[in-house]
Amino acid sequence: MSAVDGPDIVAPDGGKMRDLLRVSPGAVDPRTVDPRSTPGLPAAAGGSRARKAWAREQVELLGAELGEQQEMLFATAKAAGEPDAPASAPTTGGAELAPGRPGRVLLVLQAMDCGGKDGTVKRVAGAMNPLGLHIRSFGPPTEEELRHDFLWRIRRALPPPGYVGVFNRSHYEDVLVARVAELVPEATWRARYDEINAFEHELVDAGVTLVKVMLHISREEQGERLLERLTDPRKHWKYNPSDLDSRARWDDYQAAYAEALQRCGTESAPWFVVPADRKWYRDWAVAHLLRETFAGLHLGYPAAGFDVERERDRLRADDEGVKVNGG
Ligand code: AMP
Ligand code: MG
């Protein structure tokens, strides 16, 4: 096939990425994962100079295949009578998280500043079908958001059935920055791990497949990327002086990540740690995580909700009518 159609997708080496990168419940600390490592990268990737281009090409192929999966997800939801997502505005309130509704996939991206969340959205989601994507970013809560509990804005940002959601930051900020920067009392953030687990349990019961990814970069790599942002005037907009305050609390953030991963890495909503110092590896790994996640959903195309034979006859009759009328 490859001789005619170009390159094929090459499977990861040594097993599924979902197994290679998964945080085993209660056991992982991102500090034990080397941010420059490349788990699962096959020999086919080539040497140190070739593999970047190889990975980029693979991500394009993976994106196209994910696009087909997205279409099946969307078609299944539509066949079940789900309305299309409105073009804007919040969609899914918590009340709509009813069991038995068609599936949705939610990729949750968390990382330190410069960790590559935007790049992953651009490269991986960018290779997928934009029609079926529901991408949301979370910054500091607005005044209105602060009047509600921390999950309020998250519920409103959920993808509708049939869609692939991408969260660029998420409810985990409420046990990360909220904890390290002491935005709330300790008792408040401490209670949130259980609240997050209950919420995610609710999501899973409602047919939401979560893919929670920590993009794991080293302090050195963050330093280089911050310097790049300060050096290139075209990147100044990405820099925030508060990034250096967070950087100064590096160890506290790593500890906060470790606890979030340990407390909220569950059987039905596991965490994955993606070594992310190498951007091309990061994108390749996330694309495979999504591919394997979709494979586990065993999607197909829904049966027609109409009499196919009859519609074909009608079309034929219509065409003949046109021929008669049109001479
Ligand atoms: P960026 O991702 O560069 O656009 O920055 C978004 C900022 O929003 C980061 O500094 C986050 O720490 C901050 N942020 C996101 N969620 C929360 C939250 N729940 N509470 C406080 N700050 C948040
Ligand atoms: Mg930033």
Helices, strands, pairings?
Layout: H1 2-5, H2 17-21, H3 51-79, E1 104-111, H4 117-123, E2 133-137, H5 143-146, H6 152-156, E3 164-168, H7 177-180, H8 186-205, E4 208-216, H9 219-231, H10 242-248, H11 250-264, E5 271-275, H12 279-295, H13 308-325
Parallel strand pairs: 1-3, 1-4, 2-3, 4-5
Helix pairs in contact: 3-12
Give a brief description.
With 327 residues, the protein is α/β, with parallel strands linked by helices. 45% of the residues lie in helices and 10% in strands.
Bound molecules: adenosine monophosphate, magnesium ion
Shape: globular
Give a short account of the largest sheet.
5 strands, parallel
Record field, number of beta strands: 5
Share of β-strand residues? 5-15%
User: Which structural class matches the secondary elements?
Assistant: alpha/beta
Q: What is the count of helical runs?
A: 13
Rg is: 22 Å
> How far apart lie the N and C ends?
46 Å
Strand order of the largest sheet: 2-3-1-4-5
- pLDDT averaged over residues: 93
Low-confidence stretches: none
The residue fraction in helices comes out at: 40-55%
Q: In sequence order, what are the helices and strands, one letter per element? A: HHHEHEHHEHHEHHHEHH
Can you put this structure into words, describing what you see?
By secondary structure, the protein is of the alpha/beta class. Helix content is about 45%, strand content about 10%. It has 13 helices and 5 strands. The protein has helices spanning about 1-5, 15-20, 50-80, 115-125, 145, 150-155, 175-180, 185-205, 220-230, 240-250, 250-265, 280-295, 310-325, and strands at about 105-110, 135, 165-170, 210-215, 270-275. It has a 5-stranded parallel sheet, sandwiched between helices. Helix 3 (about 50-80) runs parallel beside helix 12. The radius of gyration is 22 Å and the shape is globular. The N and C termini lie far apart (about 45 Å). Magnesium ion binds near residues 113, 240 and 243.
